[in-house]
Design brief:
Elements: H1 2-6, E1 12-13, E2 29-30, H2 33-39, E3 42-45, H3 59-64, E4 70-73, H4 82-90, E5 96-99, H5 112-115, E6 119-121, H6 130-149
Parallel strand pairs: 1-2, 3-4, 4-5, 5-6
C-alpha cells in the first residue's frame, strides 16, 4: 500500500477486525472481500490459515477477479485451491499467479500449476531474509528460556 501511495495509486484491503488495523500509517480503503477481488489488479494474500480462510480463494472467488489480475499467495498454501487456480490460469480467467506456498508443500512436479507459464512457484522462501531469520532466532531463544522458566511464550499457536 505504501508503494501504491508513492505512485498515486489506490489500495484496497480486506482486513478482519480482529487484526486491529485502524491506525495504518498509509492510505488504504477497507472493502468487502468480493469488492477487493472484483476491483484489484493485484491480490496479495497474507492472512493466517484458519477454518474460515481454508480455500478462501476457490473457483467462486477466482471467477470474481479480473482476467487481467495477478494473484500472489505468500501466506499459507491451503488458502488457495490449487486445482481451481490452475483451471483459472489455464482458461485465461486470471492473468498470472505467484506462489511462495502451495498445498501440498512441496507441490508435486506432476501438478498442472507447475507446467503453466503464467504460474511462478517459489519453494517457500518468503521469510528467507536476514532480518526475518534474526527475529525468528531471537524469538526461539526467548521462547526457550521462557519455557524453562514457566513463563508465557511469545507468538504461541
Amino acid at each position: 500500500a505504501r508503494a501504491a501511495d508513492s505512485l498515486d495509486r489506490s489500495s484496497n484491503a480486506h482486513l478482519d477486525a480482529v487484526f486491529g488495523h485502524s491506525d495504518l500509517d498509509f492510505h488504504v480503503s477497507h472493502v468487502a472481500l468480493n469488492t477487493l477481488l472484483a476491483e484489484s489488479d493485484i491480490v496479495v494474500i497474507t492472512c493466517s490459515l484458519s477454518p474460515e480462510t481454508r480455500y478462501l480463494i476457490n473457483k467462486d472467488a477466482l471467477a470474481i477477479m479480473k482476467s487481467s489480475a495477478l494473484l500472489i499467495n505468500s501466506a499459507r498454501g491451503p488458502i488457495v485451491d490449487n486445482n481451481d487456480l490452475a483451471d483459472a490460469l489455464e482458461n485465461g480467467k486470471l492473468f498470472a499467479a505467484g506462489l511462495d506456498v502451495t498445498d501440498p508443500e512441496p507441490i508435486p512436479p506432476s501438478h498442472k500449476l507447475v507446467s503453466l507459464p503464467n504460474c511462478f512457484i517459489l519453494p517457500h522462501l518468503g521469510s528467507a531474509t536476514l532480518e526475518t531469520r534474526n527475529k525468528m532466532a531471537a524469538i526461539a531463544l526467548i521462547n526457550g528460556i521462557s519455557g524453562l522458566l514457566g513463563l508465557e511464550l511469545l507468538h504461541s499457536v
